[in-house]
């Protein structure tokens, strides 16, 4: 993931910051407990495509 792109991307739901999880190729919104996939180097920033994080799943 390009560092400059990470600086400007925000959660499409709450406009909050995102955390990049390289091992899972996801951008995580801790506030909304959503994980946005990165496919072929492109973040998929659609709420309907986001994975909901389990309550027990640790958010880094």
UniProtKB/TrEMBL annotation:
* Any Pfam family: Trm112p
Tell me the organism. Iodobacter arcticus
Name listed for the protein in its UniProt record: UPF0434 protein ACFQNF_18770
Q: Which family does it belong to?
A: Belongs to the UPF0434 family.
